[in-house]
Amino acid sequence: MSSALENNYLNVLGQIKKIKNENEITGEITLVAVSKKKPAGDIKTIYDLGQRDFGENTVQEFVRKYDELPKDIRWHFIGHLQTNKVKQIIGKTFLIHSVDSLHLAEEINKEAGKQTIIADILIQVNISDDEKKFGIDKDNTVDLIKKISALPHIRICGLMTIGKNTENIAEIRRYFSDLRKLSIDIKALNIDNVSMDFLSMGMSSDYEPALLEGSNMIRIGTGIFGDRAYL
Ligand SMILES: *Cc1c(COP(=O)(O)O)cnc(C)c1O
Predict the structure, then answer these.
(1) pLDDT truncated to tens, each residue of the chain (231 aa)?
(2) How far apart are CA 111 and CA 91, in angstroms?
(3) CB 71 within 8 A of CB 91
(4) For atom 13 of ligand 1, which residue has the closest CA?
(5) What angle do CA 21, 24, 30 make, to 5 degrees?
(6) What's the rounded Cα separation, in Å, for the pair 95 and 151?
């Protein structure tokens, strides 16, 4: 018998497939299962169904789960990252989604350099200009990317955003579309060390509009693991 968690997970996979089919979306979509505030046992449950990409938003939880869980998990760091905590996660992440300043990038570069590795990152863009959100402003994104691209131990792999918190799906879509256009413009600049392979947008409530606007990396928490208790 399968659990609610297993059912949720399989449902989400089915939904993604359906959206892809109905809209003739052909590219690969990476589903990041956002396991923040959920126990390692829940992660293991869907790991056993084949899921390998998991996202966490705090360094403390990230490190604890990294140590506890299988080493072939691809860990995504999706939360706001403080520079003084960078060293704890470097070498353990598949992708850091939340880089929005040169200062933070320099710290990541420094720690990656110590390990002689290259850290893959996304630039978080505050595309809807929401004063409550982290992320670089749209108008300053190219300039930031040019500066970060000069750092030898970092590779920029794309952009990330958090959808606008509104019921208005058309408005949500418009901002996702803006981010996709921005990534196309950046790709056209052909900056060394910069690819636009990943467009990380869409969460439980807005992954459908995100996929329709060209997202290829969606971050789903509640839709898989259920509501989070905020302690
Ligand atoms: C928590 C979180 C998610 C997942 O949110 P849900 O609404 O639970 O799917 C996605 N992205 C970021 C950056 C998050 O912090």
Answers:
(1) 579 999 999 999 999 999 999 999 999 999 999 999 999 999 999 999 999 999 999 999 999 999 999 999 999 999 999 999 999 999 999 999 999 999 999 999 999 999 999 999 999 999 998 888 899 999 999 999 999 999 999 999 999 999 999 999 999 999 999 999 999 999 999 999 999 999 999 999 999 999 999 999 999 999 999 998 765
(2) 9
(3) no
(4) 78
(5) 75
(6) 16
Dihedral through CA 122, CA 127, CA 19, CA 17, nearest 10? 10
Candidate of 203, 206, 208 to mutate for ligand 1, largest count of ligand atoms within 8 Å of Cβ: 203
DSSP-based three-state secondary structure for 92:
coil
Residues, the chain, total? 231
